[in-house]
Amino acid sequence: MGNTSSSADEDNNSTLPFSSGSSLRSRILIEAKSLRTEAEQLMFQAKAVSEQSQIAYRSGHKSEAKILSIKKINLYRQMNEKNQQAAELIFKHFNQDRPNNVIDLHGLYVEEALQYLQKKLDECRSKNKSQLIIITGIGNNSQDKIAKIKPKVENFARQNHLKMISYSGHVVIDLTETNHQNTNGCIIL
């Protein structure tokens, strides 16, 4: 009876940087942080219900286990909804004044960041942009001060055969060229 949904405690960048700006922007980040906290509470509840479900199942109370399992699924669904709402607020906050070929992934969980990156990459390609600048940060707001998003963005670029230049805190993807792989797995520039 494992979790089939993403959990809020894996590969996240949960501390939101509060930069100077209007009070509206600060309220948006406070709301996003509140949604993240609600999602985390729902995750803890879902894990507890999952344990109860497993205990009930092992004790032979299969109908009770099924009810608890359904409750767990609903809690994870609610958690994912809260995280999605938070991600939308965070993304809009950090990207509303950016040029079309720049994306800022601060404050997002890794999987959310990669989803937004794919959308932005598709948008830049459709608008024939020559490059995409991806602001990843250096991990100052991550647990243990270790960057989580940047290595995944670099891996994303390699897997998609994109030419990139990596800098401290950001990555630039050249959209004028695409690396091609031959059948031996070698990259041809």
Automatic annotation (TrEMBL):
Q: Where is the composition biased (Polar residues)?
A: 1-18
Q: Cross-referenced Gene3D superfamilies, in alphabetical order?
A: 3.30.1370.110
Identify the SUPFAM superfamilies for this entry. Answer: SMR domain-like
- Identify the stretch(es) annotated as Disordered: 1-21
InterPro entries per UniProt: DUF1771 (IPR013899), Smr_dom (IPR002625), Smr_dom_sf (IPR036063), Smr_domain_protein (IPR053020)
Q: Which domain of life is it from?
A: Eukaryota
Organism expressing this protein natively: Rotaria sordida
| One Pfam family named in its UniProt record | Smr
Please identify the protein, giving its name as recorded: Smr domain-containing protein
Q: Which residues form the Smr domain?
A: 103-189
